[in-house]
Write a structure and sequence with these properties.
heterodimer, A: alpha+beta, Uridine Diphospho-n-acetylenolpyruvylglucosamine Reductase, domain 3, Alpha-Beta Plaits, 5-stranded antiparallel sheet, 17 helices, 36% helix, B: 403 residues, alpha+beta, 14 helices, 24% strand
């Protein structure tokens, strides 16, 4: 397969570049407008670094009102807009093109309100995911979705991709934790949807906005739900000889009515890579490892763990290692959460994100390794086992175009497999450009046409993040 | 509203193919369809004036149930009772505690799983685990073009394409006919404990509920029944669910935490469960049927102030669920059901919205049942209606004029 295509450039926009920049300069001060080649280069890609395209210009508005003016101007001029959070998308969701203006939310980075009575935090959308938890942690609260990139990624991006994380087995993903947004529509109109209350009025617009990958509008503020932290939490490492045993143990734990706060899976390749990086004390003599975290008081942790350990024993667990201290707990999670970064030290990789029914995990793991083998490549598997969200990391050399093509092809095969067993292309990373051309594997033409008709309600001219999510052929405007 | 004098005809498709045929026929003849699930909530929303009733009572059956994956799919007409029976055999449940409004609305019929999705009907546990829309992970529906559309699926994490599942939840059948739904499930708690504080004012009660919801004890329901709702004294209720050892520990810890509000008493498990069911089903307002019933969603911290301001202006009875974030109100049944006063008062207490859940057809035809939307949101709503149901076939006028 050839590499991922971009839509043809609108040369009339590129021809008017100076005039468009002039127009933007009238709306925002110089420190909010980036036009030089050197500075624009920082915005040419995201975490899908194999693809890079320079934006026409970058605007970093300081307020909802400023962002609204910029959007209204772009809309009026027919200029495409690529919204950008922190640029951590693994799917190329923030990659621009030469005829598009990037609007970034990095200057919208204030926490506006914390209310423990209503258990909400109101933030500007450019705040990082982790900064919300940081703001309320001292008082014993946290914001639940915890993508591995939480140190850097923004709430705006989380809303765009409906981000999850390791702990969403118990606490849900972004869409379950957002109560309201302030959003700027393509023509600059500012709307408030939802608020501090549960279940917004009218149709569930929030539901369709979360996960829409910046195609329906730009969120500038969000009201999120915060939760009180558990009294304590303890991760336990379970080492098994085979992935099949580990997979069966996961199914048995859930089937027994126990919902740990997280169940993470790593195969041997991932264990070795992450242990070398984080020195977390992962067992190196096992074929697969689970990190199972339970929460509660000491008494409750003990009660749940004894049930889980029993089940693991019934499935031939070889190593059981409980965290004995906060430091050990931190190391265990550091190893897991830095899995992508640690892998990046070993090789370039592409990370797949398909979700499969948990009953299919063992089969999908086996087939994944066969697929990647058949391309002569290596794979490390690290993923959220409790909800079936796989993350095979396919290792390759980015400077070898033939190998990159093979890696992408293997990734596509894996995603087809995920759909074939009843799952989906992406659990939490989003479609972006990366999986756009596989959408018709999961959806019929009618399904996609209907989604595009919904999209067109918000953006009839396809100006907002237009290269993403939907195959370039057969697009429907209204 | 056009009052058609001919009796409506009835279609009862038993398969998705039949359903598509019904929709295509309606489309070809410019007909309109009133979608009926179990019929128990047919009076929720504005009265629908459609030429044909489209009953889903024959489109039934549980199509997928994997206990170890905690996922269930069923055709839209499947009764909730059948699903709950199967789930309870495996000690699992629909997490959001679906409510049964038959006593409240004085309706017949069997609540269906499709109706639950259409109304986004959630009970007391919504405060902890989320609403019906949070647990519905897949739908199949027929749009106004007569096309079968699927969105979501059977896996818990899925951000592939636009989430039309959520859009169908709470759309009251205005955006298509849902033919099959998939829910994620949770294990049924092994033990339930309920704490009650007595004789608190509304304001003190909401403060106690908020305080309890801010503890690590995973309160799964938090309600306040002012004096006269479930007896002579006011009851402030908190529910804990978990392993028995955990519930025991947390009941003690939470009682201690609540000491500043008063001495918390434990309810017997059966008594507690019965009371939560009455709260879930809004049974306290079953009679007298003449009174209108409203459901108000607002920030919990504003709830007591809102009710106090309302009481100063009109005769209302009320109780609180979701830690105060959900206020059920019973109001006199004048022509307006208190709508103007109620919404004007609510607007002084920050964000929120009011839905008229029980009133006569005549009242529901002219009182805005759902909270009126701002102009830009109405425009989006109209656009979505047109994109999913361009000819306006489904449940015309159910939510708003033209929607």
């Amino acid at each position: 397969m050839s590499e991922i295509a971009f839509p043809a450039l609108d040369m009339s926009i590129i021809g008017r570049r100076d005039q468009i920049i002039q127009g933007l300069a009238e709306l925002v001060p110089p420190e909010c407008l980036i036009t030089s080649e050197d500075e624009r280069r920082a915005f040419e890609t995201d975490a899908l670094t194999a693809y890079r395209r320079m934006p026409l210009a970058v605007v970093l508005p300081r307020s909802t009102e400023e962002l609204s003016l910029v959007m209204a101007y772009c809309h009026q001029q027919g200029v495409k807009i690529v919204p950008r959070g922190a640029g951590t998308s693994l799917a190329g969701g923030a990659i621009p093109q030469e005829d598009a203006v990037v609007i970034g939310v990095s200057k919208l980075n204030r926490i506006l309100e914390v209310d423990y009575g209503d258990r909400i935090v109101r933030v500007q959308a450019g705040v990082t995911n982790l900064s919300i938890t940081d703001a309320v942690m001292a008082d014993g609260f946290f914001y639940a979705p915890d993508p591995s990139s939480q140190l850097a990624c923004t709430i705006a991006g989380n809303i765009g991709m409906n981000s999850g994380g390791a702990h969403c087995l118990k606490y849900g993903v972004t869409t379950n934790n957002i109560l309201g947004v302030r959003m700027v529509l393509i023509d600059g109109t500012i709307v408030d949807i939802g608020g501090r209350h549960l279940d917004a009025a009218g149709l569930d617009l929030l539901g369709v906005i979360v996960g829409s990958e910046g195609q329906l509008g730009m969120v500038t503020e969000a009201t999120v739900r915060i939760l009180r932290s558990a009294e304590g939490a303890r991760p336990v490492l379970f080492g098994f000889d085979t992935s099949e045993q580990a997979g069966a143990a996961v199914a048995a734990v859930l089937g027994a009515g126990i919902i740990p706060v997280a169940i993470e899976f790593m195969d041997k390749e991932a264990i070795v890579i992450c242990e070398a990086f984080a020195k977390a004390g992962y067992p190196l003599d096992v074929g697969a490892m689970l990190i199972v975290e339970v929460e509660g008081s000491e008494l409750e942790i003990e009660a749940q763990l004894s049930l889980i350990v029993d089940i693991a024993r019934q499935h031939g667990v070889k190593v059981v290692k409980e965290s004995k201290s906060a430091m050990e707990t931190a190391a265990i999670w550091k190893g897991r959460k830095s899995a992508f970064g640690a892998t990046g030290r070993v090789a370039d990789y592409i990370c797949m994100d398909g979700t499969v029914p948990t009953g299919q995990l063992s089969y999908v793991l086996k087939r994944t390794s066969e697929i990647v083998d058949s391309y002569g490549l290596r794979v490390a598997n690290v993923f959220h086992a409790g909800d079936g969200n796989m993350h095979p990391l396919i290792l390759y050399n980015v400077n070898d175009p033939a190998e990159q093509a093979k890696a992408e092809e293997a990734g596509n095969d894996i995603l087809r497999l995920c759909v074939e067993v009843g799952g989906c292309l992406t659990g939490e990373h989003g479609v972006g450009i990366e999986k756009r051309d596989l959408m018709n594997v999961q959806f019929t033409k009618s399904d996609l046409d209907q989604q595009m008709r919904v999209r067109a309600v918000f953006d009839p001219l396809w100006l907002l993040n237009p290269a993403k999510v939907f195959p370039l052929e057969g697009r429907i405007a209204a | 509203m056009n009052m058609d004098v001919r009796p409506a005809s009835l279609e009862t498709p038993a398969t998705e193919a039949d359903l598509i045929a019904c929709v295509l026929a309606a489309r070809a003849s410019n007909n309109t369809l009133e979608i009926i699930g179990g019929g128990s909530r047919i009076d929720l929303g504005r009265p629908v004036q459609a030429k044909t009733k489209l009953s889903l009572k024959a489109l039934t059956g549980i199509t997928l149930y994997e206990p170890s994956e905690m996922v269930l799919s069923a055709r839209a007409g499947t009764s909730l009772a059948e699903i709950e029976k199967l789930l309870s055999e495996h000690r699992q449940m629909l997490p959001f505690e679906p409510a049964d409004y038959r006593k409240l609305l004085g309706s017949q019929g069997e609540p269906s799983i499709g109706g639950l999705v259409a109304g986004n009907i959630s009970g007391p546990r919504r405060i902890q685990v989320g609403a019906a829309r949070d647990h519905c992970i897949g739908v199949r529906f027929v749009n106004g073009r007569g096309e079968l559309i699927k969105s979501g699926g059977r896996v818990m994490k899925n951000v592939t394409g636009l989430d039309l599942v959520k859009l169908q939840c709470g759309a009251h059948g205005t955006l298509g006919v849902v033919s099959e739904v998939t829910f994620k499930l949770l294990p049924r708690p092994q033990a339930t404990g309920t704490l009650v504080l007595e004789d608190l004012s509304d304001a003190a009660a909401i403060a106690a509920l908020s305080s309890a919801l801010g503890t690590p004890f995973e309160v799964s329901a938090a309600a306040h029944l002012p004096a006269g709702i479930a007896g002579p004294s006011a009851l402030t209720l908190l529910r804990l669910e978990n392993l028995p050892v955990s519930v025991e520990y947390r009941l003690n810890a939470l009682s201690k935490h609540l000491e500043v509000f008063g001495k918390a008493r434990r309810l017997d498990e059966g008594e507690g469960l019965a009371l939560w069911q009455r709260i879930r089903d809004v049974e306290f307002f079953s009679e007298p049927k003449e009174r209108a019933v409203w459901r108000v969603s607002l920030a919990p911290s504003q709830a007591a102030g809102f009710v106090k301001a309302l009481r100063a202006q009109m005769d209302v009875a009320c109780f609180y669920d979701w830690g105060g974030g959900l206020v059920w109100l019973s109001t006199p049944s004048d022509a307006e059901c208190g709508a103007g006063l109620l919404r004007a008062t609510l607007s002084q207490f920050g964000s929120g919205h009011a839905t008229l859940v029980r009133a006569s057809a005549e009242q529901r035809a002219h009182v805005p049942v759902f909270e009126p939307l701002s102009a830009p949101l109405m425009k989006i709503t109209q656009g979505l209606k047109a994109s999913l149901d361009p000819q306006g076939l489904f449940n015309p006028e159910r939510m708003y004029a033209g929607i």
